[in-house]
Design goal:
The chain is mostly helical and 150 residues long. 55% of the residues lie in helices and 0% in strands. It is globular.
């Protein structure tokens, strides 16, 4: 019995290797954490334009989901959440993509009781969208096109 426990412990120890060395191309590590609006970030964000594009997409995704101006008016009182780096000409693309995310949001399959049955996962979905490789590549492509135009 002690041998089985020892082997199980050793297998568990070695199977919990760090993600850092993963060869899986489908693993998305994301960017390092930073404080927006703070100049002494270490490490500093690699491309703030791409991050701002993704932030705008995140907030528009929330707006498409909740369809409630008062939430965003409350946020505007305390938060600077819309930066001006992303040109207005890209907003139709941002809006159509985030609307598509919300429109395709499936019905909730797991809920606590009947009162939660009609609720949906807007916030979680928009966070997943913000962190996704898909939005990352869309934002990087938009940045490349934006810099060509300049």
């Amino acid at each position: 019995m002690k041998t089985v426990i020892a082997i199980g412990f050793i297998l568990t120890l070695f199977s919990c290797s760090a993600v850092k060395g993963s060869k899986d191309l489908n693993t998305y590590y994301g960017d390092a954490f930073f404080y927006p609006g703070y100049s002494k970030n270490k490490p500093s964000p690699k491309n703030s334009w791409v991050i701002e594009y993704k932030q705008n997409a995140f907030f528009d995704c929330l707006f498409q989901g909740y369809k409630n101006d008062s939430i965003f008016k409350l946020i505007q009182k305390e938060d600077i959440f819309l930066e001006a780096a992303v040109p207005m000409s890209l907003w139709p693309k941002i809006k159509s993509d985030s609307k598509k995310i919300i429109d395709n949001l499936p019905a909730t399959e797991y809920y606590n009781d009947e009162t939660d049955k009609h609720k949906r996962h807007f916030l979680e979905t928009c966070l997943c969208y913000f962190a996704s490789r898909e939005l990352d590549s869309v934002a990087k492509r938009a940045y490349q096109e934006h810099t060509k135009v300049k």
